């Protein structure tokens, strides 16, 4: 299958006097699993609809492969969309639902049957071929919707919160399946979600959106480890933020005490520490920053424990993995030594 990328240049869109997109530029590589991540109202669905041709931008342009499609109608773009609501025909069976688009394209019956059978096999739903859509579970319906969107081999598959109606377990299973499907097909996928775990699990790269703009683009690990702004740090997981009150080279003063960084501190900047990078161990580790802390809250999360610590009157979170037979973990009210390595303290740009 041919792999096709997408270029979005200077896209703006307002509804009345309300701007939904304030100038978005993005390059999605051919064969990439790319995610638009952001809270409700940040403009991600509007951007997806513009790529699909379901909405016209006020300015800017869209190229799919080497062709500009900005003013092309939706049906001439080699793009399909999977929505949160599966939008299947309830009275048609699975095979007819999946083959519907091919029928509209007047693909002959034998070819249609071959491609539908292949796709049902590929999505592990061949056994459901004769079942009516209304007789399927939510997870099965979403597999059928995915098969229907992929059967006519789009250059780009757009996914608008496709898993958000499913329960947590099924959602996790389908996320893995979606990722494997994309890897096997090599089709460019663009996913819209407000769920950071989903974005981290699935994506090659993520664009974090904020009020109609792209705030940062990067691979999951890059965004999680080195967010540029407090907004991105916060959106991609739990974070502890500390303001730099004064700086002397790499040594800075913060509300929890002095800290050594790996680069020069900037007065007024925010420092970010992920909770799992804060170690709670009685013995000070060499080269680490150390703080006296009191455990205010201890929440059992199964594979880990989440702590709320009081450090010099500031509340900080720490997440400690269970090591099974290891030493006992601190209880509420205990005094502990919280430690963080300088390379785990990230200096963010001021907002
Ligand atoms: P959600 O996850 O809730 O769908 P989103 O990030 O996808 O949010 P959009 O749906 O793109 O955000 O909406 C961006 C902004 O544009 C919002 O302020 C929304 O109210 C507004 N908007 C979207 N569609 C329309 C419309 N058809 N008419 C008027 N305003 C709209």
Q: Assign a percent range to the helix content.
A: 10-25%
How many strands, what sense, and barrel or not for the largest sheet? 6 strands, mixed
Give the beta-strand count. Answer: 21
CATH topology (level 3) name of the largest domain: Rossmann fold
Strand order of the largest sheet: 6-7-8-3-9-10
Q: What is the overall pLDDT average? A: 92
Oligomer: single chain
Write the layout of secondary structure elements.
Elements: E1 6-15, E2 18-28, E3 33-37, H1 44-52, E4 59-64, E5 67-68, E6 79-82, H2 94-104, H3 109-122, H4 138-150, E7 156-160, H5 168-185, E8 188-193, H6 196-202, E9 205-210, E10 213-218, H7 220-225, H8 230-235, E11 240-243, E12 246-248, E13 251-254, E14 257-260, E15 270-273, E16 279-280, E17 289-300, E18 304-311, E19 314-321, E20 335-340, E21 346-348
Parallel strand pairs: 3-8, 3-9, 6-7, 7-8
Antiparallel strand pairs: 1-2, 1-4, 4-5, 9-10, 11-15, 12-13, 13-14, 15-21, 16-20, 17-18, 17-20, 18-19
Helix pairs in contact: 2-3, 2-4, 3-4
Bound molecules: adenosine-5'-triphosphate.
Describe this structure in words.
The chain has 2 domains: 227 residues, P-loop containing nucleotide triphosphate hydrolases (Rossmann fold); 111 residues, Beta Barrel (OB fold (Dihydrolipoamide Acetyltransferase, E2P)). It contains 8 helices and 21 strands. The strands form 5 sheets. The chain has a 6-stranded mixed sheet, with helices on both faces. Strands 16-20-17-18-19 form a 5-stranded antiparallel sheet, with no helix packed on it. A hairpin with a 3-residue loop joins strand 17 and strand 18. The longest helix has 18 residues. It is globular, with a radius of gyration of 24 Å. The mean pLDDT is 92. The site of adenosine-5'-triphosphate (ATP) has 12 residues, from strand 2 and helix 1.
């Amino acid at each position: 299958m041919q792999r096709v990328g997408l270029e979005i240049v200077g896209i703006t869109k307002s509804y009345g006097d309300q701007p939904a997109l304030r100038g978005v530029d993005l390059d999605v590589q051919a064969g990439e699993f790319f995610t638009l991540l952001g809270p409700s109202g940040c403009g991600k669905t509007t951007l997806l609809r513009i790529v699909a041709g379901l909405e016209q931008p006020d300015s800017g342009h869209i190229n799919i492969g080497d062709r500009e499609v900005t003013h092309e109608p939706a049906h001439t773009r080699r793009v399909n969309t999977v929505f949160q609501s599966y939008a299947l025909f309830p009275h048609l069976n699975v095979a007819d639902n999946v083959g519907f688009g091919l029928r509209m394209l007047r693909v002959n019956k034998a070819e249609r049957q071959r491609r539908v059978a292949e796709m049902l096999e590929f999505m592990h739903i061949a056994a459901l071929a004769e079942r009516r859509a209304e007789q399927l579970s939510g997870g099965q319906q979403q597999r059928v919707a995915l098969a229907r969107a992929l059967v006519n081999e789009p250059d780009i598959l757009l996914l608008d919160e496709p898993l958000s109606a499913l329960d947590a377990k099924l959602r996790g299973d389908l996320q893995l399946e979606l990722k494997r499907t994309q890897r096997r097909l090599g089709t460019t996928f663009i996913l819209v979600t407000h769920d950071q775990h989903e974005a981290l699990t699935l994506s090659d790269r993520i664009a974090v959106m904020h009020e109609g703009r792209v705030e940062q683009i990067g691979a999951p690990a890059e965004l999680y480890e080195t967010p540029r702004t407090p907004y991105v740090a916060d959106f991609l997981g739990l974070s502890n933020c500390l303001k730099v009150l004064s700086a002397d080279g790499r040594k800075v003063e913060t509300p929890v005490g002095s800290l050594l960084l790996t680069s020069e501190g900037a007065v007024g900047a925010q420092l970010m520490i992920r909770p799992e990078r804060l170690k709670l161990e009685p013995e000070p580790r060499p080269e680490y920053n150390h703080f006296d802390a009191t455990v205010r809250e201890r929440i059992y999360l199964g594979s880990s424990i989440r702590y709320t610590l009081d450090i010099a009157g500031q509340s900080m979170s720490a997440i400690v993995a269970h090591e099974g037979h290891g030493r006992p973990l601190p209880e509420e009210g205990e005094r502990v030594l919280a430690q963080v390595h300088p390379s785990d303290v990230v200096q963010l740009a001021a907002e």
